[in-house]
Design brief:
The chain has 174 residues and is α/β, with parallel strands linked by helices. It has 7 helices and 6 strands; from the N terminus they run H-E-H-E-H-E-H-H-E-H-H-E-E.
């Protein structure tokens, strides 16, 4: 199989701005108004960039689910959405394993999760490869509503550290 036929896109997104959660469990923290606007802007950016995931793997937390809902209101679309506790409670190894197991034959996968996992996953997968502009932007921090777009040539089951190139990094603000 040619590498062009195996080329895939992995989009890693940090949830939008959430309340501080006083009186709530971390899992039940909700987006604030700014977070909803930023998530809608992220959805508009994904649509504008032509990034339509075949699969969204979303943390089970309320704020990540609300981030995806607001992104859809902004224009984002996906074929399938799965909610995975491993993206909420796990670290980078668990997130990587979830992608390997869930992505199957899809061409484009979007993962919506939390820091520090999303930032670490982006850095470990791309290891400085790809767009210097994107890496410079990422070096300023993986802010809420941040979106990293990585290129990967291979089977999802073989995804590993240093196997991707960071193509774009964008922080959405609405």
């Amino acid at each position: 199989m040619s590498s062009a036929a195996r080329e895939k896109t992995l989009i890693l997104m940090r949830h939008s701005k959430a309340e501080n959660g006083a009186g709530k469990t971390d899992h039940d923290r909700e987006l604030i108004a700014r977070g909803r606007r930023d998530a809608a802007a992220a959805g508009a950016w994904l649509k504008e960039q032509g990034l339509v995931p075949d699969l969204v793997i979303c943390s089970t937390s309320l704020r990540t689910r609300q981030t995806w809902d607001a992104a859809c209101k902004g224009g984002a679309q996906a074929e399938f959405v799965e909610f995975r506790k491993s993206v909420y409670v796990g670290g980078v190894e668990e997130a990587l394993e979830t992608i390997r197991e869930d992505a199957g034959e899809t061409a484009t996968v979007l993962v919506i999760g939390h820091n520090p996992t999303i930032a670490q996953l982006t850095s470990l997968l791309s290891d400085g490869d790809g767009s210097q502009v994107a890496h410079d932007a990422l070096a300023n921090g993986f802010a809420t509503s941040g979106v990293a777009v990585l290129r990967y040539a291979g089977e999802w089951a073989d995804l590993d550290w240093s196997s991707c190139e960071l193509q774009r990094f964008h922080v959405s603000r609405g």
